Amino acid sequence: MIKSKVKYFVTLVLTVILAFSTIFSAYASTWTLTGDTYAHDPTYIQEGSGTRWVFSTGQGIQVHWSTNGTTWNLGTQVFASEPSWWATQVPNHTKLDVWAPDIYYYNGKYYLYYSISSFGSQTSAIGLVTCTSITTGDWVDQGMVLSSSSSNTYNAIDPNLFADKSGNLYMSFGSWWAGIYVTAISKSTMKPTGNAYRIATKDGGIEGSSVVYNSSTGYYYLFVSIGVCCQGVNSTYQVAVGRSTSVTGPYYDKNGVDMKSGGGTVLDSGNSSWKGPGGQDISGTNILIRHAYSVAESGAAHMLISDLQWDSSGWPYYS
C-alpha cells in the first residue's frame, strides 16, 4: 500500500512538472535579445552553422550580426554608395535610404532583395545584390528586378523570395494601392518571369508580405503587415496571416475570408511595451522576426524574434 501511494505521488508530481513545462514552452517563445537591436523591417538568416545576420531598412541596408542569436552587434552597411540605376529609375528616392530587404540562400549564393522608393509614391523599384559570403561581404549589384510607376496597380516594394513545394521560386511584393502580388522567379536570372498575381488587399494599409510553405500542413501561409507603420508608438501595424493550397491563392483567414477581399487573421497586435509590430520575415517555418516600437524608448524601432509554432489545426502562433 505504501509503495502504491509513493508511486502515485511520484506520477502525480511528474505529470504536474510536464504540464508546467508544456505551458512554459508554449508561452516562452520570444527570444531575449541584447546589444544593438535597433532595426526596421528586419530579415533573418544564419550563415551555415555559424553567424546569424539581420538586414533591415536604413542607410545602404543596415546590417546586424550575432554569434548566438541573442547578442547583436551593428555591422557594415551593404551599400557605401548608390548604384547608378537608382537615380534613373527612382529619381526622388532619398540617397542611400533603402527599404525592407529580404535575404535568401540558393545554389551557393546569398540573394539580398531590397526596395527604393519615395514615401507614399508608386514610383518604386526592387533591386538585387548578391554575395558568396556574408562574412566576407563580397556584394555585387545585380541591378533592377522590378519597377512600378503611377500607371501600375501595384507598388514595387517589400520583396520576399520563397520556394513552392516543388522547389520553384516565387517572389511576393507590393503594398497599399491594389495590395500584395506574387510572381514566378527564374532560377537563372533570379528575376521575375511571367505574370504577377494579386493575392491580398486591405483598406487602411497592407504591405510587408512573407510567404512560406509548410510541408507538415500542406499549406502556403501569407504573412502581412496591416495598418500604418513608421509613426512610433502611434503606429497601427499588426501582423496578420492567411493560408492557401496554391501558391497563387486564394489565401483565406481562419474565418474563411479571402485576403483579396480584406481577410487576414491577426497574430500580433502589440502590447503595453511594444506597439505596431510588423515588417515581419519568416526563416524556415520556425522563426519569425519583426520590428516593434518601444514604449519605454518613445517609439524607437527594435527587432523582436520569436519561435514560430503551429497549432493542431495548422495555424501559426507565437508569443
Q: Topology, pairings included?
A:
Blueprint: H1 2-27, E1 34-35, E2 43-46, E3 52-56, E4 58-59, E5 62-66, E6 71-74, H2 84-89, E7 97-106, E8 109-117, E9 124-131, E10 140-148, E11 160-163, E12 169-174, E13 180-185, E14 192-200, E15 206-214, E16 219-226, E17 238-244, E18 265-268, E19 274-283, E20 287-294, E21 300-307, E22 309-310, E23 316-317
Description:
By secondary structure, the chain is mainly beta. It has one domain: Glycosyl hydrolase domain, family 43 (Tachylectin-2, Chain A). Helices cover 10% and strands 44% of the residues. It has two helices and 23 strands. Strands 1-6-5-3-2 form a five-stranded mixed beta sheet, with no helix packed on it. Strands 4-7-8-9-10 form a five-stranded antiparallel beta sheet. Strands 11-12-13-14 form a four-stranded antiparallel beta sheet, with no helix packed on it. A hairpin with a 4-residue loop joins β15 and β16. The radius of gyration is 21 Å and the shape is globular. The N and C termini lie far apart (45 Å). The N terminus is likely disordered. Pathway: Glycan metabolism; L-arabinan degradation. It comes from Paenibacillus cellulosilyticus. Pfam families: Glyco_hydro_43.
